Amino acid sequence: MSSLQLLWFILIGVLFAGFFFLEGFDFGVGMSLQTLAHNEKEKDQLVATIGPVWDGNEVWLITAGGAMFASYPFWYSALFSGYYLVLFIILIGLIVRGVSFEFRQKVAPERKNFWNWMLASGSFIVPFFFGILFISMIQGMPLDAKGNMSAGFTDYINLFSLVGGIALTLLSYLHGLNYIALKTIGPIRERAKNYAKFLYGILYVGLVAFAVLLYFRTDFFKLHLLSTLLLLIVIVILTVIANVGVIKNMELLAFSASGLTLISLVTLLFTGLFPRLMISSITTKYDLLITNASSSPYTLRVMSYIALTFLPFVLAYIAWTYYIFRKRIRHDRFTEY
Amino acid sequence: MNWSDYSRFVGDIFGAPLAVEALLAFFMESTFLGLWIFTWKMVSPKLHVVFIWLVTFASSISAFWILAANSFMQHPTGYTIKNGRAIMNNFGALLTNAQLWYEFSHVIAGAITMGGMILAGLSAFQLLKRKNSETSFYKKSIKIGLVITLFGSLAVLMAGDLQMKALVKEQPMKFAAAEGEYDDTTDPAALTLVAWANENQHKRVFGVEMPYVLSILAYDKLSGSIQGMNHINKQLVKRYGQRNYYPPVNTLFWSFRIMAGFGMLMLLVAILGLFFTRKKNQLLYRQKWMLWVLGLCTFAPFLANTAGWLVTELGRYPWTVYGLFTIKQSVSPNVSVTSLLISNIVYFLLFSGLAVTMIGLVIRELKKGPDYEEKRLQEEQRSSADPFDKGAFE
Lengths: 337, 394
Known about the structure:
The complex is a heterodimer of chains A (337) and B (394).
Chain A: H1 3-35, H2 40-50, H3 54-71, H4 73-82, H5 84-106, H6 109-138, H7 153-156, H8 159-183, E1 184-185, H9 187-217, H10 220-223, H11 225-247, H12 251-273, E2 276-278, E3 288-289, H13 297-324, E4 329-330
Parallel strand pairs in A: 1-4
Antiparallel strand pairs in A: 2-3
Chain B: H1 4-38, H2 45-74, E1 79-82, E2 85-88, H3 91-96, H4 98-129, H5 136-170, H6 172-179, E3 191-198, E4 203-210, H7 213-219, H8 229-240, H9 249-275, H10 283-286, H11 288-296, H12 300-314, E5 319-321, E6 325-326, H13 327-330, H14 337-368, H15 372-383
Antiparallel strand pairs in B: 1-2, 3-4, 5-6
Subcellular location (chain A): Cell membrane
Main location (chain A): membrane
Protein name (chain A): Cytochrome d ubiquinol oxidase, subunit II
């Protein structure tokens, strides 16, 4: 395995982690639109917390996909065709959600609620099906010698992948609630924390189920005992910290901890997969490996130069954007129709 | 998603510009668009305008990188074939591909034309609808739109001309099909204005011709013949093996005419529109039918651009990467026809729904008039505390 292959494996992991950290709270805010907010005023307030940034946050996913295509074309081919319908549902979710941000503000008042629902349901669908995708992937899929996957319904949808889907949705929801508590002034701030207090109770149950199923349904504990255990412990500790943060009104702490939980989860998936990219349930011979699925050294080198040159600038202006929009969104800024 | 064998074949080359596009263009575009929309009166007007220029810049380089990928499919450069895969050996060649620069100028000019035409067309509708006292804004915007359309469509024309001249050499089949020529033409070659082909018998059913014009378009001179598809098909069979190399001729022929026809129409409309809005003679504002024509031209760039892409992509038949890899080789063997059918039906319905919503929203926004946004901002200003005030946040 060359160091550039390793670099791009890590980079793809970082991009997915960044996506779930940033877009995670966007999803959570989207879900809260129809579950937490009491009136249109509060809904407008919620959308305003992510209005300027959600679009950029989605780019992390596109870049992850692009980086995967460029550095691991065999992984890209196997994953994107193998998960055709799952990714199709995700795409539909992202499309209806994406247009709803604008549409809900521009349409006639009587249609606004329709687009609120689109925004919220899109926000539920996308993390849920990403959970399904990743958790079914780490259990191994029927990958043939060429890397083509012909999977059946239960390969995609099984107990563990459902738990994974629900867990990722719940984590995003909680991350969004913590973000709302951090970014708003008004009645919704307290309500978000109350919701979070209740939901953390459920998350603990989910985490236990997740760890148990991870043990029985994957080879993570066999191959990477230490890192898997360590990361599971980190995830639990971070969840406790976030929970304490919610109870003690330490909003920034709670938000950071829930974000790091999502990053740790992605790290767990990627370290567990290592040195594989996709696991074949037919025979280990058909596993897609970092060593045999990558692009040529030349392409990886060109890509590395470009990425390492420009990534700092990108991160800098993204950070600056969050600095510009650092203020809390007040509830009395919005007028009722 | 349904081109896995294609992705494996070209991923080493094709993926790179896509990843670079996401990194360089998409991040910048989305971040600064967010900044531009939400920072009015938060930052200085100068900085605010920088934001939208960065969005423009990012959109343009986005086009550049995606076309770098497409140009490789049209005219592969900078690669070797190793173990049945195309491997990149020269990233620079990907960017200096002549095809890329033709496509890029054509697409950017097409986009500028579209912007200008939409502006002019929608202004024309407003001039039809509104009372005289409200029209001064739209009289300005219609002129700006027409000027943009004029320069845009001139640039499209020049870029398209260069592209077609290259096509004669690089992809003669596409050129011949777009012109509907089955047999080698006479010397000098005539341009066929309208025609219909019998695609099964590889024969033209009828056609109306304009002498000399095709020679001028292809070679810039009054002589020179164009190879016909039957001739080219034989050459391609010799070079690449037994296969059908005829693209869908009628679709290509008519797509090309829709593209070029609406392109010329926009140029004409821009020239006449500017002529009839000059200070001495403002005929345009008095003639309702002229405004109607201009308004309906709003749809012209959509038709022209779509038809243009049909020519480029369908004309590459039977290749996905010209001369290297066919459509048949490219598909995902494991994505079922049912999956494709379901997804395409849903896409079609979804995008039709979104298009209807969008047109409805455009009309709704236009009805509000040009001062609407300003009024809304003033109201917002009054109802909320100064955002820079200390009490506004903790």
